[in-house]
Here is the input.
Amino acid sequence: MSTMVTRRQVAIGIMTGTAALAQTPVPPVPQTPEDELKAMQIQIRQNADTFAKVDVPQASEPAFVFRP
Here is the structure.
């Protein structure tokens, strides 16, 4: 038995997570380019961790089709 997940269901799941992330406090603005780079790297890692927590079954519908 496989569970079918549509693009719409995945989008709703992502939007729900995004809304929760939008409620987090905004960190202070970095003063130097090096601090800005470090802040962006941390943000990218946090985003990757958040996306890794979302379980998308392999049977989910692809958002596009490869055609020759």
